[in-house]
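User: Quick one: structure for sequence A, then sequence B.

Assistant: Sequence A:
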Amino acid sequence: FAWIFFIAVLGVTMAIPMKRQMINIEQIRFPDSIATAETLKVLYSEGKKAAGQAKALLYSALFSAANAIAMAAGGERWLGVVQQHIFGNWYQRTIFFKWDLMFVGAGALIGMKTSLSLFIGGTICWALYVPWLESQELLPAGAGYRESVSWTLWGGTACMVVASIVAFLFQWKSIVRSFSSLGAMFSLSKKRELTDVEKIETPMSWFLAGQLISLAALGYLAHASFDVPYWMSCIAVVISFFLALVVCRITGEANITPTGAMGKVTQLIFGGIAPGHVTANLMAANITSGASSSSADLLVDLKVGYLLGANPRKQFIAQFSGIFLGTLVSVLAFRSMVPDANALQSFNAPGARTWAATAEALGMGFSHLHSIKVLSIIAGGILGLILVLIPRYLPRTGKWLPTPIGFGLAWAIQWNDSFLFFAGAVLGWTADRLFKDKSREYKIPSASGIIAGAALTGMAILMFSIYQTAH
């Protein structure tokens, strides 16, 4: 209970300065937030235009739901047969199609540049790099996604991390202004009167309090429960802030929250500073992943509130209150499914196995990481730096380059997802060109409906399959 609770507190309070930078200043899109805000606007609007948008949202949601049901009812099997004839040996390896309209809707909201970057990065990764790894016998012939991604994510993650941190540091003036209230909190001079905007923003003092309390609590828990030295816990919390920054930026730009990939970065760092300490490696990554997820979730909600004119301080209080119930439900649900360690054997949990394998490998030290992975990290970091610097100093040249977030993320997700993002962006771009007025009015409601329909139906199908398994 305590471990999950304080990781959530750490992540939620981390989002306070990020909100001001990413939402207020940089105006990052956050596609899921746009979809949610648009849905709420349509549901509570009146008039002819609102009625037309409501119909567009409803019809697209029904179409997306019908597609999800059709795929679950056997459409995927028939689609697989067709693809096997088209792709031959490539099928079910790295290049295949799986029709998930949620990504298509997200691609229409994200736009062409990021989606095209995803498609280019994904094609280079899965059609060129992975086959090369197989030719070098680093991967078995016909390796699937789960085997391949343990090699590909290193370069892509390095690209995203370096690019996000460098871009963040370029905004140092805004960062200083965001943290200025911390200095005012300790100032002995007369307190100045807050502006109207500052009165509704979450105070930076809440950020400081949340970070210090979580740091102390997690440091104690990690030491008492997992025998992790206090200094390692401090490093894990500091690392988590910068990696949560990367996760939140990726969520805002590409609509995917890569907490697993960022957790691997923490594991890599701890493989260097704490060789031989497998437990510390795993639990430090757990802090990063949990805090990043909480930060990204809150920023998605805050972006919705920003679009609708909500009070961010009240939103923060509501989200913080949810930590108590969320912790209670998640812990009790896990305890009911996994009463003891032996019960874990009935769960495949491929993600957990990947984390454990990485902890065991990197726990032996950074030197045990394969040389190809080390070179991928170096190359990815250099590429991320280039893709940030060139657009900044050579804007005419930079506009033709892919975005580092899109290009790097494609190395951590399946090629199919990158393709669907690109397909959605092409449809949105075509609508903007051929039906400019109609697109301006109906594109966002339609894309929002597709996302909502696919998400809700997917959740219903999952719950139904769980019910069938239980009975």
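Sequence B:
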Amino acid sequence: MLVTRNFAKCLVQSTINMTARSYQVSVMGGASEIGQIISFMLRTEPSVTSLVVHDMRENTPGIVLDLSHIPVNSRLMGFCGHSTIERALKDSDLVLFVGGVIKSPTLTNEAWFETNTAFIKNIAARVGKMAQMPFIGIVTEPINVLVPMAAEIMRCHGAFDPKKLFGITTIDWIRAQTLYATEHKMPPKTCFVPVIGGHSEKTIIPLLSHSRPTTNMKDPEIMQFTRKIQECDDIVSQAKQGLSSTMSIAYSVVMFAREIFRALDGQRVKVNAYVENNDFGTSYFSGLVNVDKDGMKSMQRFTKISQYECNLLEKATEQLRKDVARGKKILEVA
């Protein structure tokens, strides 16, 4: 009887330990359009027992108040302004950079780029001063340029682990999945289309040669499908009359976060991300990345790709080298 009781006690304790795993997430730029959607979704995520929302916008307290009315058993904290960045980052397991501004017809490319660069510089410098680097996911565009820049800033400030820095490109993967399923009248969950390269119109490469289930797409169809994936942002923006595709991107960010939580739980997972990787002719590359509790491991390789995909890869690699160089060139650490 004693053995049974001890076994039952251990079983209960084990169950408590398994269900008690919880994580703090900081959403930096959480009052932005996409930041609000991400914060809302994470507010109800079971693994998130502490959600931190930070932004420079004056309406940040109102966003946090709105989120506080959602009846969940998790802690919610809000911070506003430059002086509170360190407090917003403290003790977080995952930090999401989602701030800056979204491209719009009323905003010049120069203003868009300068605003988003300033946002990344500011937050990355504070992360670099942390005693231990958390997992970092960057959503702010242009990812191809800003992820390498963030890495150099963190290196300059001391605390940097390249295995924990990710440009979140999950949106490219789920777009390829859903459009492929629509094209062939299949359930989306049964389809898989790997996407490699980078995260811009010139660098996104859907590998239809490795898609599942396999189909007999002709060359013109493959080229048309590829262009559709590469131009998705513009297509959605035109359909929304100048607004960005915030909802699908927010969903993809939460998908990424869920996988990171599983990795922190001790599981081996895969995420689609743009990371530091020297195996493809450039120092940063996007693809399916293996991740565990310590961060990034290896990136999945795809052999026997088509000649068309080889040509795309060659051009994408050339562009990625320019993007990475641009990110490092504009680096100015105050």
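Residues 1-20 have pLDDT under 50 and may be disordered. The CA atoms of residues 210 and 302 lie 8 Å apart.

User: Thanks, that's what I needed.
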